[in-house]
Amino acid sequence: MMLHLTTCADDLDIAVNLLRAGKLVALPTETVYGLAADATSAGAVRAIFHAKGRPADHPLIVHIAAAEQLPVWADQVPEAAWRLASAFWPGPLTLVLPVAPAVSPLLTGGQATIALRVPAHPVFQAVLRRFGRGLAAPSANPFGRISPTTAAHVQRHLAGRIAAVVDGGPCPVGIESTIVDLSGDQPRILRPGAITIGDLARYLTRVEASAMAAPRVPGTLASHYAPRTPCYRIPPDLPEAPFAGQRLGLLATRPVNWPVAKFWPMSANPEDYARVLYSTLHQADASDCDVLLIALPPDEPAWTAVHDRIRRATRSLLMEAGRVGH
Ligand code: TXA
Ligand code: MG
Question: How far is the CA of 257 from the centre of ligand 2 (A)?
Answer without folding.
Answer: 35
